[in-house]
Write a structure and sequence with these properties.
Elements: H1 2-24, E1 27-32, H2 40-55, E2 60-65, H3 73-81, E3 86-90, H4 92-95, H5 114-121, H6 124-136, E4 138-154, E5 168-171, H7 175-183, E6 187-190, H8 196-201, E7 207-211, H9 212-217, E8 226-242, H10 243-247, H11 251-285, E9 289-291, H12 296-303, H13 317-326
Parallel strand pairs: 1-2, 1-3, 5-6, 5-7, 8-9
Antiparallel strand pairs: 3-8, 4-7, 4-8
Length: 327
Amino acid sequence: MRKLLSRMALGVAMLSAVTGAASAQQYKLRVAHALAPTEPIHLVAEEFAKAVGERSKGKVQIQVFPSEQLGINKDILEQVRQGAPIIQIADPGFMSDYVPDFGVLNGPYLITGPDEFKKLLASDWYGELKRKSEETGLRPLAFNFFFGVRNMLGNKPFRSPADLQGVTMRIAPNPIWVETFKALGARGVPLPWTEVYGALAQNVVDAVEAPLGSLTASKLQEQRKTLSQTGHFIAFLGFVMNDKTFRGFPADIQQILTEEAEKAGERMTALTIENDKKLLEDLKKQGVTVVSDTDLPAFRKATAPVYAAFPKWTPGLYDRIQKILAE
Protein backbone atom coordinates (compact mmCIF):
# COMPACT_ATOMS: atom_id res chain seq x y z
CA MET A 1 0.00 0.00 0.00
CA ARG A 2 2.85 2.35 0.91
CA LYS A 3 4.51 1.67 -2.45
CA LEU A 4 1.20 2.35 -4.24
CA LEU A 5 0.68 5.63 -2.37
CA SER A 6 4.25 6.59 -2.99
CA ARG A 7 3.87 5.97 -6.74
CA MET A 8 0.64 7.95 -6.80
CA ALA A 9 2.28 10.88 -5.01
CA LEU A 10 5.18 10.77 -7.44
CA GLY A 11 2.77 10.76 -10.37
CA VAL A 12 0.88 13.75 -8.99
CA ALA A 13 4.15 15.59 -8.41
CA MET A 14 5.33 14.91 -11.98
CA LEU A 15 1.98 16.02 -13.42
CA SER A 16 2.12 19.20 -11.36
CA ALA A 17 5.65 19.89 -12.53
CA VAL A 18 4.66 19.43 -16.18
CA THR A 19 1.55 21.60 -15.76
CA GLY A 20 3.54 24.25 -13.98
CA ALA A 21 6.19 24.27 -16.69
CA ALA A 22 3.54 24.58 -19.39
CA SER A 23 1.80 27.44 -17.61
CA ALA A 24 5.12 29.21 -17.12
CA GLN A 25 6.20 28.78 -20.76
CA GLN A 26 6.90 32.01 -22.58
CA TYR A 27 6.60 32.72 -26.27
CA LYS A 28 8.66 35.39 -27.98
CA LEU A 29 7.59 36.95 -31.26
CA ARG A 30 8.79 39.87 -33.34
CA VAL A 31 6.66 42.15 -35.50
CA ALA A 32 8.42 43.42 -38.63
CA HIS A 33 7.46 46.20 -41.01
CA ALA A 34 9.12 48.51 -43.54
CA LEU A 35 7.66 51.82 -42.44
CA ALA A 36 8.77 54.64 -40.17
CA PRO A 37 8.13 54.48 -36.40
CA THR A 38 6.04 57.66 -36.73
CA GLU A 39 3.38 55.94 -38.88
CA PRO A 40 0.03 54.71 -37.52
CA ILE A 41 0.93 51.10 -38.37
CA HIS A 42 3.83 51.23 -35.92
CA LEU A 43 1.65 52.72 -33.20
CA VAL A 44 -0.98 50.01 -33.54
CA ALA A 45 1.70 47.31 -33.72
CA GLU A 46 3.08 48.54 -30.39
CA GLU A 47 -0.45 48.59 -28.93
CA PHE A 48 -0.99 45.06 -30.24
CA ALA A 49 2.22 43.85 -28.58
CA LYS A 50 1.22 45.42 -25.27
CA ALA A 51 -2.34 44.07 -25.36
CA VAL A 52 -1.18 40.52 -26.18
CA GLY A 53 1.35 40.67 -23.34
CA GLU A 54 -1.26 41.84 -20.84
CA ARG A 55 -3.97 39.38 -21.89
CA SER A 56 -1.53 36.45 -21.88
CA LYS A 57 -0.23 37.53 -18.43
CA GLY A 58 3.26 37.83 -19.82
CA LYS A 59 3.35 34.46 -21.59
CA VAL A 60 3.68 36.15 -24.99
CA GLN A 61 6.36 38.78 -25.41
CA ILE A 62 6.37 40.76 -28.66
CA GLN A 63 8.93 43.28 -29.88
CA VAL A 64 8.24 45.56 -32.86
CA PHE A 65 10.90 46.34 -35.50
CA PRO A 66 10.13 49.20 -37.95
CA SER A 67 12.01 50.58 -40.96
CA GLU A 68 13.10 47.22 -42.42
CA GLN A 69 15.34 46.56 -39.42
CA LEU A 70 14.84 42.83 -39.90
CA GLY A 71 15.05 43.00 -43.70
CA ILE A 72 12.92 43.93 -46.71
CA ASN A 73 9.29 42.78 -46.90
CA LYS A 74 9.77 40.05 -49.49
CA ASP A 75 12.66 38.41 -47.62
CA ILE A 76 10.97 38.59 -44.23
CA LEU A 77 7.77 37.01 -45.54
CA GLU A 78 9.78 34.08 -46.87
CA GLN A 79 11.45 33.71 -43.47
CA VAL A 80 8.01 33.66 -41.88
CA ARG A 81 6.88 30.96 -44.29
CA GLN A 82 9.91 28.87 -43.35
CA GLY A 83 9.10 29.13 -39.64
CA ALA A 84 10.70 32.30 -38.24
CA PRO A 85 8.87 33.53 -35.09
CA ILE A 86 7.91 36.79 -36.78
CA ILE A 87 4.59 38.48 -37.44
CA GLN A 88 5.07 40.26 -40.75
CA ILE A 89 2.99 43.29 -41.64
CA ALA A 90 2.30 42.13 -45.17
CA ASP A 91 0.80 43.59 -48.30
CA PRO A 92 -1.56 41.49 -50.49
CA GLY A 93 0.90 41.89 -53.36
CA PHE A 94 3.61 40.05 -51.46
CA MET A 95 1.13 37.39 -50.36
CA SER A 96 0.36 36.78 -54.03
CA ASP A 97 3.82 35.23 -54.44
CA TYR A 98 2.41 32.27 -52.50
CA VAL A 99 -1.33 32.49 -53.20
CA PRO A 100 -1.76 34.28 -56.55
CA ASP A 101 -5.40 35.28 -55.98
CA PHE A 102 -4.32 37.46 -53.04
CA GLY A 103 -2.98 39.93 -55.59
CA VAL A 104 -6.43 41.03 -56.71
CA LEU A 105 -6.89 42.80 -53.36
CA ASN A 106 -4.31 45.33 -54.57
CA GLY A 107 -6.00 45.82 -57.91
CA PRO A 108 -6.42 49.35 -59.28
CA TYR A 109 -9.80 50.93 -58.56
CA LEU A 110 -11.09 47.64 -57.18
CA ILE A 111 -12.99 49.14 -54.24
CA THR A 112 -14.16 52.57 -53.08
CA GLY A 113 -13.21 52.37 -49.40
CA PRO A 114 -12.88 50.37 -46.16
CA ASP A 115 -16.53 49.30 -46.05
CA GLU A 116 -16.22 47.45 -49.34
CA PHE A 117 -12.97 45.83 -48.26
CA LYS A 118 -14.66 44.71 -45.05
CA LYS A 119 -17.33 43.06 -47.18
CA LEU A 120 -14.63 41.09 -49.03
CA LEU A 121 -13.03 39.95 -45.76
CA ALA A 122 -16.40 38.66 -44.53
CA SER A 123 -17.00 36.61 -47.69
CA ASP A 124 -16.63 32.88 -48.28
CA TRP A 125 -14.11 33.80 -50.97
CA TYR A 126 -11.73 35.33 -48.43
CA GLY A 127 -12.21 32.28 -46.21
CA GLU A 128 -10.99 30.13 -49.10
CA LEU A 129 -8.07 32.50 -49.67
CA LYS A 130 -7.07 32.28 -46.02
CA ARG A 131 -7.12 28.46 -46.08
CA LYS A 132 -4.94 28.41 -49.20
CA SER A 133 -2.48 30.70 -47.42
CA GLU A 134 -2.33 28.38 -44.42
CA GLU A 135 -1.52 25.47 -46.75
CA THR A 136 1.57 27.38 -47.93
CA GLY A 137 2.66 27.95 -44.33
CA LEU A 138 1.37 31.51 -43.95
CA ARG A 139 -1.49 32.33 -41.54
CA PRO A 140 -3.13 35.75 -41.81
CA LEU A 141 -4.16 36.81 -38.30
CA ALA A 142 -6.09 39.77 -39.68
CA PHE A 143 -6.08 41.72 -42.93
CA ASN A 144 -8.27 44.68 -41.97
CA PHE A 145 -5.54 47.33 -41.60
CA PHE A 146 -6.60 50.27 -43.77
CA PHE A 147 -3.34 51.79 -44.96
CA GLY A 148 -4.85 54.63 -46.96
CA VAL A 149 -5.63 55.77 -50.47
CA ARG A 150 -2.49 55.82 -52.62
CA ASN A 151 -1.77 59.00 -54.55
CA MET A 152 1.15 60.27 -56.65
CA LEU A 153 3.77 62.81 -55.59
CA GLY A 154 5.96 64.43 -58.23
CA ASN A 155 7.10 67.76 -59.62
CA LYS A 156 4.16 68.11 -62.00
CA PRO A 157 0.45 67.24 -61.97
CA PHE A 158 -0.71 63.79 -63.06
CA ARG A 159 -4.26 64.61 -64.09
CA SER A 160 -4.58 61.79 -66.62
CA PRO A 161 -2.60 58.77 -67.85
CA ALA A 162 -1.19 60.98 -70.62
CA ASP A 163 0.74 62.93 -67.97
CA LEU A 164 2.52 59.76 -66.85
CA GLN A 165 4.03 58.80 -70.19
CA GLY A 166 7.74 58.13 -69.66
CA VAL A 167 7.69 59.16 -65.98
CA THR A 168 9.92 57.05 -63.73
CA MET A 169 7.74 56.12 -60.77
CA ARG A 170 8.99 54.35 -57.66
CA ILE A 171 6.78 51.33 -57.17
CA ALA A 172 6.55 48.51 -54.67
CA PRO A 173 8.44 45.44 -55.94
CA ASN A 174 5.46 43.23 -56.71
CA PRO A 175 3.58 42.33 -59.92
CA ILE A 176 0.34 44.29 -59.47
CA TRP A 177 2.33 47.54 -59.25
CA VAL A 178 4.40 46.63 -62.28
CA GLU A 179 1.33 45.90 -64.43
CA THR A 180 -0.64 48.91 -63.19
CA PHE A 181 2.05 51.47 -63.98
CA LYS A 182 2.89 49.79 -67.26
CA ALA A 183 -0.77 50.24 -68.21
CA LEU A 184 -0.54 53.91 -67.23
CA GLY A 185 2.52 54.46 -69.42
CA ALA A 186 4.94 55.14 -66.58
CA ARG A 187 8.25 53.37 -66.08
CA GLY A 188 7.96 51.59 -62.74
CA VAL A 189 11.17 51.37 -60.71
CA PRO A 190 10.94 48.85 -57.83
CA LEU A 191 12.80 50.12 -54.76
CA PRO A 192 12.75 49.31 -51.04
CA TRP A 193 10.82 52.01 -49.20
CA THR A 194 13.85 53.06 -47.15
CA GLU A 195 15.67 54.06 -50.35
CA VAL A 196 12.94 56.29 -51.78
CA TYR A 197 13.98 59.62 -50.23
CA GLY A 198 17.50 59.29 -51.62
CA ALA A 199 16.20 58.14 -55.01
CA LEU A 200 14.06 61.26 -55.30
CA ALA A 201 16.89 63.51 -54.10
CA GLN A 202 19.24 62.07 -56.73
CA ASN A 203 16.55 61.99 -59.44
CA VAL A 204 16.83 58.23 -59.79
CA VAL A 205 13.03 58.40 -59.97
CA ASP A 206 10.77 61.31 -60.94
CA ALA A 207 7.86 60.50 -58.66
CA VAL A 208 6.50 58.20 -55.98
CA GLU A 209 3.08 56.83 -55.08
CA ALA A 210 1.93 55.96 -51.56
CA PRO A 211 -0.67 56.76 -48.92
CA LEU A 212 -0.40 60.19 -47.30
CA GLY A 213 0.84 58.73 -44.02
CA SER A 214 3.84 57.11 -45.69
CA LEU A 215 4.65 60.10 -47.87
CA THR A 216 4.73 62.51 -44.93
CA ALA A 217 6.34 60.15 -42.41
CA SER A 218 9.28 59.78 -44.79
CA LYS A 219 9.24 63.56 -45.50
CA LEU A 220 9.04 62.99 -49.24
CA GLN A 221 7.30 66.35 -49.63
CA GLU A 222 10.76 67.84 -49.10
CA GLN A 223 11.73 66.39 -52.48
CA ARG A 224 8.55 66.74 -54.56
CA LYS A 225 5.88 69.42 -54.33
CA THR A 226 2.86 68.28 -56.37
CA LEU A 227 0.39 65.72 -55.01
CA SER A 228 -2.06 64.28 -57.53
CA GLN A 229 -5.11 62.61 -56.00
CA THR A 230 -5.31 59.65 -58.35
CA GLY A 231 -6.55 57.16 -55.74
CA HIS A 232 -5.32 54.32 -57.94
CA PHE A 233 -5.01 51.82 -55.06
CA ILE A 234 -6.89 51.65 -51.78
CA ALA A 235 -4.38 49.91 -49.61
CA PHE A 236 -4.80 47.37 -46.83
CA LEU A 237 -2.21 45.44 -44.85
CA GLY A 238 -2.34 42.32 -42.71
CA PHE A 239 -0.61 40.62 -39.79
CA VAL A 240 0.80 37.32 -41.08
CA MET A 241 2.71 34.63 -39.18
CA ASN A 242 3.86 31.06 -39.71
CA ASP A 243 0.91 28.67 -39.63
CA LYS A 244 2.76 25.84 -37.86
CA THR A 245 4.02 28.24 -35.20
CA PHE A 246 0.49 29.52 -34.67
CA ARG A 247 -0.95 26.01 -34.36
CA GLY A 248 1.76 25.18 -31.83
CA PHE A 249 0.39 27.76 -29.40
CA PRO A 250 -2.23 26.83 -26.79
CA ALA A 251 -5.81 27.62 -27.83
CA ASP A 252 -6.05 30.63 -25.50
CA ILE A 253 -2.91 32.18 -27.01
CA GLN A 254 -4.23 31.59 -30.52
CA GLN A 255 -7.45 33.36 -29.58
CA ILE A 256 -5.61 36.30 -28.03
CA LEU A 257 -3.38 36.79 -31.08
CA THR A 258 -6.30 36.63 -33.51
CA GLU A 259 -8.60 38.90 -31.53
CA GLU A 260 -5.95 41.51 -30.80
CA ALA A 261 -4.83 41.53 -34.44
CA GLU A 262 -8.42 42.26 -35.51
CA LYS A 263 -8.68 45.04 -32.92
CA ALA A 264 -5.39 46.50 -34.12
CA GLY A 265 -6.73 46.55 -37.69
CA GLU A 266 -9.85 48.41 -36.58
CA ARG A 267 -7.71 50.90 -34.67
CA MET A 268 -5.43 51.37 -37.68
CA THR A 269 -8.41 52.03 -39.95
CA ALA A 270 -9.82 54.69 -37.61
CA LEU A 271 -6.42 56.35 -37.24
CA THR A 272 -5.79 56.41 -40.98
CA ILE A 273 -9.15 57.99 -41.79
CA GLU A 274 -8.64 60.62 -39.09
CA ASN A 275 -5.01 61.36 -39.95
CA ASP A 276 -5.43 61.65 -43.72
CA LYS A 277 -7.66 64.72 -43.41
CA LYS A 278 -5.09 66.46 -41.24
CA LEU A 279 -2.13 65.38 -43.37
CA LEU A 280 -3.65 66.84 -46.52
CA GLU A 281 -3.98 70.23 -44.85
CA ASP A 282 -0.45 69.99 -43.46
CA LEU A 283 0.96 69.31 -46.93
CA LYS A 284 -0.77 72.39 -48.31
CA LYS A 285 0.75 74.50 -45.52
CA GLN A 286 4.18 73.11 -46.47
CA GLY A 287 3.82 74.41 -50.01
CA VAL A 288 2.61 71.23 -51.68
CA THR A 289 0.15 71.77 -54.52
CA VAL A 290 -2.77 69.34 -54.22
CA VAL A 291 -4.29 68.38 -57.58
CA SER A 292 -7.85 67.13 -57.11
CA ASP A 293 -9.23 67.54 -60.66
CA THR A 294 -7.84 64.21 -61.84
CA ASP A 295 -9.59 62.31 -64.62
CA LEU A 296 -10.50 59.20 -62.63
CA PRO A 297 -12.60 57.62 -65.43
CA ALA A 298 -9.53 57.81 -67.70
CA PHE A 299 -7.35 56.19 -65.03
CA ARG A 300 -9.91 53.41 -64.49
CA LYS A 301 -10.16 52.75 -68.22
CA ALA A 302 -6.39 52.66 -68.66
CA THR A 303 -5.90 50.18 -65.79
CA ALA A 304 -8.84 47.88 -66.58
CA PRO A 305 -6.63 45.48 -68.65
CA VAL A 306 -4.48 44.83 -65.55
CA TYR A 307 -7.04 42.28 -64.35
CA ALA A 308 -6.38 40.14 -67.41
CA ALA A 309 -2.60 40.19 -66.94
CA PHE A 310 -2.36 37.45 -64.31
CA PRO A 311 -2.86 33.97 -65.78
CA LYS A 312 -2.26 32.35 -62.38
CA TRP A 313 -5.37 33.98 -60.94
CA THR A 314 -8.46 31.79 -60.73
CA PRO A 315 -10.57 32.27 -63.90
CA GLY A 316 -13.42 34.69 -63.27
CA LEU A 317 -11.77 36.12 -60.14
CA TYR A 318 -12.50 39.78 -60.89
CA ASP A 319 -16.13 39.03 -61.72
CA ARG A 320 -16.50 37.08 -58.47
CA ILE A 321 -15.12 40.06 -56.52
CA GLN A 322 -17.58 42.40 -58.22
CA LYS A 323 -20.45 40.07 -57.41
CA ILE A 324 -19.49 40.04 -53.71
CA LEU A 325 -19.30 43.83 -53.68
CA ALA A 326 -22.72 44.12 -55.35
CA GLU A 327 -24.47 41.94 -52.74
